[in-house]
Amino acid sequence: MSTISVHSTQQSSSPAFYFSQLKHNSSFKEKLEAVLEKEVTSNIFSTIWRCDALFSKTKGILGVVVYENQLTPESRGDFYMREFKILNETGATNFYATMLLNRVLQKARDMRARGILFKSPKNDKMIQFLRQKNFRIMIGQDKDTYLYSENLKKCSYHDECSEIGESKKRSTQEDLGSSVTSSKEARIGAQSAVSASQRTIAKNPKIHSLPMKGTIFLEYIMKGLKKFEGRVCAKIYENMSVGDELRLYDYRARWGIVCDITSITKYPTFESMLNDKGVLSMLPQLESRSKHISNQQLLQEAIKIYQGFPGSERVKQLGVLAIGVNFIKKYT
Q1: What is the C-alpha separation between 299 and 276, in angstroms, rounded?
Q2: Angle between helices 158-167 and 93-110 (to 10 degrees)
Q3: Which pTM does this prediction carry?
Q4: Rounded Cα–Cα distance for residues 223 and 218 (Å)
Q5: Which residues have CB under 8 Å from 174's CB, separation 6+?
Q6: Beta 145-149 vs 320-331: how paired, if at all?
Q7: Could you tell me the domains of the chain?
Q8: Which tens digit of pLDDT belongs to each residue from 296-322?
């Protein structure tokens, strides 16, 4: 049975960390097979795919990045990243992720790539990290979600260095890798790179702003509990597209949040929307009630909540939208 070995070590700027290419015959095979997609591990040692690992002299392997080692006609000049994974889950996760990302950025610059394309990971925290590093959401014709960036400049370590200092005070590790979104757009599978002609989202996403009454709803979105925002259809929503930026702001509290729009689905009634998206994905405040009443009773309570919002009577003529939201950052 073949295993994985470290090959061609290259020291990073920090003596405590270094990168190595993973090849056959070593002790990391089982660990990688447990965290990477099957097709990734089966092709990881091919001539086209390459796996670079980030190591710490004291903690061992911290993370891996898998990418195509050359630009292909299918990639249309984009550097295609197959996998981006942190294995050592600590309070310094973003610091390690930034080192991995800078490795990718350097490789992309060396290849003179136009941009970096990455099929969206299952982990919400990693999506948020990459969004903060100038990646934006794009939807391919295969209906899967991709992250894309044309900014190949090296990322700063300033914020991540302060994170390492704070991590010593934390008693629990970040739950990296356990947050899995259930939406169809966020399913991950090893496929060929999506070509430029398949990208259906504009390269200049628009910014939309909507009022939100009640910071509790903002907090639910920040925690990943509220995955969809329901709104009665109106003209202001006609220009919204998946990949655009949505800002939700509570004027009384004087703060709001910035989100990515991950999906937009229209329904004729509140009931059809709630049945399709799920009551708790839209109204997570009903979670405790859901443990004591039937699903039908829960649905009726949810419908009453939406019917209590101003202008809800217009749903009969206009319909209702379920806007998929992914939290990026908080603002004031």
Answers
A1: 11
A2: 150
A3: 0.48
A4: 9
A5: 89, 90, 91, 93, 125
A6: unpaired
A7: 4-198 (3.40.630.30), 207-331 (2.30.130.30)
A8: 999 999 999 999 988 899 999 999 999
